[in-house]
Write a structure and sequence with these properties.
alpha+beta; 3-stranded antiparallel β-sheet; 3 strands
Length: 90
Amino acid sequence: MEFLLQVVWTGPGRLAVDAAVNVACWCDTDHASHDVDVFSRAVADLALLPQAFRVGTERLIGWPADPRDADCWRAEAGLRISAPRPGVRG
């Protein structure tokens, strides 16, 4: 389980603050992880970037108060909650 907070470019001169809870996945396609709870705030005016970052940070700080077991997050997102046994698909 990972927690992500970042400022990203969304286009020329356009920014957003993104935060997410990310869990490893056991999908047949090896894409490694899923964002299971996401916050994104587009910033139309760069003067609003600190406010958007503060809101994203507050959400990030709140996540550890939620379940700390990645399987709880996987179940909520409808993902497989346990690793497949070797040689077993699906």
